[in-house]
Protein backbone atom coordinates (compact mmCIF):
# COMPACT_ATOMS: atom_id res chain seq x y z
CA UNK A 1 0.00 0.00 0.00
CA UNK A 2 1.18 3.46 -0.84
CA UNK A 3 0.69 5.91 2.00
CA UNK A 4 1.42 9.57 2.46
CA UNK A 5 2.20 9.03 6.11
CA UNK A 6 5.40 7.94 7.76
CA UNK A 7 5.90 4.40 9.00
CA UNK A 8 5.69 5.51 12.63
CA UNK A 9 2.85 8.00 12.22
CA UNK A 10 -0.88 7.62 12.82
CA UNK A 11 -0.94 5.38 15.91
CA UNK A 12 -4.16 3.51 16.65
CA UNK A 13 -5.68 3.31 20.14
CA UNK A 14 -6.63 -0.30 20.93
CA UNK A 15 -9.64 -0.89 23.15
CA UNK A 16 -10.82 -4.14 24.66
CA UNK A 17 -14.26 -5.40 23.63
CA UNK A 18 -15.70 -3.39 26.56
CA UNK A 19 -14.26 -0.18 25.03
CA UNK A 20 -11.62 0.30 27.73
CA UNK A 21 -7.95 0.63 26.78
CA UNK A 22 -5.98 -2.59 27.16
CA UNK A 23 -3.46 -0.55 29.17
CA UNK A 24 -2.90 3.08 30.07
CA UNK A 25 0.84 3.08 30.65
CA UNK A 26 2.14 2.27 28.27
CA UNK A 27 -0.97 3.25 26.35
CA UNK A 28 -2.27 0.37 24.21
CA UNK A 29 -1.34 1.53 20.72
CA UNK A 30 -0.77 -0.27 17.43
CA UNK A 31 0.71 0.99 14.20
CA UNK A 32 -1.88 1.80 11.53
CA UNK A 33 -0.47 -1.13 9.52
CA UNK A 34 -1.15 -3.62 12.35
CA UNK A 35 -4.64 -2.17 12.84
CA UNK A 36 -5.55 -2.56 9.17
CA UNK A 37 -4.20 -6.11 9.18
CA UNK A 38 -6.40 -6.87 12.24
CA UNK A 39 -9.41 -5.40 10.40
CA UNK A 40 -8.85 -7.72 7.43
CA UNK A 41 -8.38 -10.68 9.81
CA UNK A 42 -11.76 -9.73 11.38
CA UNK A 43 -10.23 -9.35 14.87
CA UNK A 44 -11.21 -5.71 15.49
CA UNK A 45 -13.94 -3.19 14.76
CA UNK A 46 -13.00 0.30 13.62
CA UNK A 47 -14.46 2.79 16.09
CA UNK A 48 -12.94 6.09 14.86
CA UNK A 49 -10.96 7.19 11.78
CA UNK A 50 -8.27 9.73 10.95
CA UNK A 51 -8.89 12.11 8.04
CA UNK A 52 -6.23 10.18 6.11
CA UNK A 53 -6.33 7.21 3.80
CA UNK A 54 -3.98 4.67 2.30
CA UNK A 55 -4.35 3.53 -1.27
CA UNK A 56 -3.68 0.27 -3.08
CA UNK A 57 -4.45 -0.47 -6.75
CA UNK A 58 -7.98 -1.69 -5.91
CA UNK A 59 -8.73 -0.21 -2.48
CA UNK A 60 -8.81 3.06 -0.54
CA UNK A 61 -8.85 2.66 3.24
CA UNK A 62 -9.34 5.42 5.78
CA UNK A 63 -6.81 5.03 8.56
CA UNK A 64 -8.37 3.90 11.83
CA UNK A 65 -7.57 5.99 14.91
CA UNK A 66 -9.46 3.78 17.42
CA UNK A 67 -10.23 0.06 17.17
CA UNK A 68 -11.92 -2.32 19.58
CA UNK A 69 -11.19 -6.01 19.88
CA UNK A 70 -14.04 -8.31 18.86
CA UNK A 71 -13.16 -10.78 21.63
CA UNK A 72 -12.82 -9.61 25.21
CA UNK A 73 -9.34 -10.09 26.66
CA UNK A 74 -9.60 -10.73 30.39
CA UNK A 75 -7.19 -8.39 32.14
CA UNK A 76 -4.61 -9.97 34.38
CA UNK A 77 -5.46 -9.56 38.04
CA UNK A 78 -1.87 -9.86 39.27
CA UNK A 79 0.62 -7.68 37.42
CA UNK A 80 4.01 -9.13 36.54
CA UNK A 81 6.90 -8.16 38.79
CA UNK A 82 9.05 -6.08 36.46
CA UNK A 83 11.35 -3.11 36.89
CA UNK A 84 8.89 -0.97 34.90
CA UNK A 85 5.95 -2.01 37.10
CA UNK A 86 7.95 -1.24 40.27
CA UNK A 87 8.64 2.24 38.88
CA UNK A 88 4.97 2.62 37.94
CA UNK A 89 3.82 1.50 41.40
CA UNK A 90 6.22 4.05 42.92
CA UNK A 91 5.06 6.76 40.46
CA UNK A 92 8.50 7.05 38.87
CA UNK A 93 10.05 8.65 41.94
CA UNK A 94 12.81 7.65 44.32
CA UNK A 95 11.25 6.25 47.46
CA UNK A 96 14.02 7.79 49.57
CA UNK A 97 14.30 11.38 48.26
CA UNK A 98 11.50 11.75 45.71
CA UNK A 99 13.77 12.42 42.70
CA UNK A 100 12.26 11.41 39.35
CA UNK A 101 15.55 10.86 37.50
CA UNK A 102 18.20 8.16 37.16
CA UNK A 103 15.97 5.48 38.73
CA UNK A 104 17.21 2.04 39.68
CA UNK A 105 15.63 -0.40 42.03
CA UNK A 106 16.73 -1.05 45.55
CA UNK A 107 16.30 -4.11 47.74
CA UNK A 108 15.08 -2.69 51.07
CA UNK A 109 16.66 -5.63 52.88
CA UNK A 110 19.79 -6.25 50.78
CA UNK A 111 20.04 -9.58 49.00
CA UNK A 112 23.31 -10.23 50.85
CA UNK A 113 21.31 -10.08 54.10
CA UNK A 114 18.60 -12.47 52.88
CA UNK A 115 16.33 -9.95 51.14
CA UNK A 116 14.27 -11.32 48.27
CA UNK A 117 13.44 -9.77 44.90
CA UNK A 118 9.73 -9.33 45.60
CA UNK A 119 7.15 -6.54 45.48
CA UNK A 120 7.40 -6.21 49.26
CA UNK A 121 11.20 -5.79 49.28
CA UNK A 122 11.98 -3.68 46.20
CA UNK A 123 11.44 0.05 45.67
CA UNK A 124 12.39 2.62 43.06
CA UNK A 125 15.53 4.50 44.08
CA UNK A 126 17.64 7.09 42.32
CA UNK A 127 21.25 6.08 41.76
CA UNK A 128 22.68 8.48 44.40
CA UNK A 129 20.32 7.15 47.11
CA UNK A 130 20.89 3.55 46.06
CA UNK A 131 24.67 4.05 46.24
CA UNK A 132 24.39 5.86 49.60
CA UNK A 133 22.26 3.07 51.08
CA UNK A 134 24.55 0.45 49.61
CA UNK A 135 24.47 -2.93 51.33
CA UNK A 136 22.80 -1.64 54.49
CA UNK A 137 19.37 -2.20 55.98
CA UNK A 138 17.11 0.87 56.29
CA UNK A 139 17.92 1.10 60.01
CA UNK A 140 21.67 0.91 59.41
CA UNK A 141 21.55 3.50 56.62
CA UNK A 142 18.91 5.63 58.40
CA UNK A 143 17.07 5.66 55.07
CA UNK A 144 13.45 4.54 55.01
CA UNK A 145 11.17 4.30 51.96
CA UNK A 146 8.44 6.94 51.79
CA UNK A 147 5.81 4.21 51.45
CA UNK A 148 5.70 0.58 52.44
CA UNK A 149 6.55 -1.61 49.45
CA UNK A 150 3.53 -3.67 48.36
CA UNK A 151 2.25 -5.91 45.60
CA UNK A 152 -0.02 -3.62 43.53
CA UNK A 153 -3.19 -4.63 41.77
CA UNK A 154 -3.63 -4.04 38.04
CA UNK A 155 -6.16 -1.34 38.98
CA UNK A 156 -3.55 0.48 41.09
CA UNK A 157 -1.01 0.36 38.24
CA UNK A 158 -3.63 1.63 35.76
CA UNK A 159 -4.54 4.44 38.17
CA UNK A 160 -0.88 5.42 38.47
CA UNK A 161 -0.42 5.13 34.71
CA UNK A 162 -3.18 7.69 34.18
CA UNK A 163 -1.00 10.19 36.08
CA UNK A 164 1.43 10.14 33.13
CA UNK A 165 -0.52 10.87 29.94
CA UNK A 166 1.54 10.36 26.79
CA UNK A 167 2.86 13.30 24.80
CA UNK A 168 0.49 12.51 21.96
CA UNK A 169 -3.26 12.10 22.43
CA UNK A 170 -5.37 12.31 19.28
CA UNK A 171 -8.73 14.03 19.78
CA UNK A 172 -10.60 10.91 18.57
CA UNK A 173 -9.17 9.00 21.57
CA UNK A 174 -10.40 11.32 24.30
CA UNK A 175 -13.85 9.74 24.74
CA UNK A 176 -12.14 6.42 25.56
CA UNK A 177 -9.39 7.64 27.88
CA UNK A 178 -9.71 8.90 31.40
CA UNK A 179 -6.63 10.90 32.31
CA UNK A 180 -7.19 12.02 35.85
CA UNK A 181 -4.56 14.35 37.24
CA UNK A 182 -6.61 14.84 40.42
CA UNK A 183 -5.89 11.33 41.75
CA UNK A 184 -4.56 10.76 45.22
CA UNK A 185 -0.75 10.92 45.32
UniProtKB/TrEMBL annotation:
<feature type="domain" description="HNH nuclease">
    <location>
        <begin position="81"/>
        <end position="131"/>
    </location>
</feature>
<dbReference type="InterPro" id="IPR052892">
    <property type="entry name" value="NA-targeting_endonuclease"/>
</dbReference>
<protein>
    <submittedName>
        <fullName>HNH endonuclease</fullName>
    </submittedName>
</protein>
<dbReference type="Pfam" id="PF01844">
    <property type="entry name" value="HNH"/>
</dbReference>
<keyword id="KW-0255">Endonuclease</keyword>
<dbReference type="InterPro" id="IPR003615">
    <property type="entry name" value="HNH_nuc"/>
</dbReference>
<dbReference type="GO" id="GO:0004519">
    <property type="term" value="F:endonuclease activity"/>
</dbReference>
<dbReference type="InterPro" id="IPR002711">
    <property type="entry name" value="HNH"/>
</dbReference>
<keyword id="KW-0540">Nuclease</keyword>
<keyword id="KW-0378">Hydrolase</keyword>
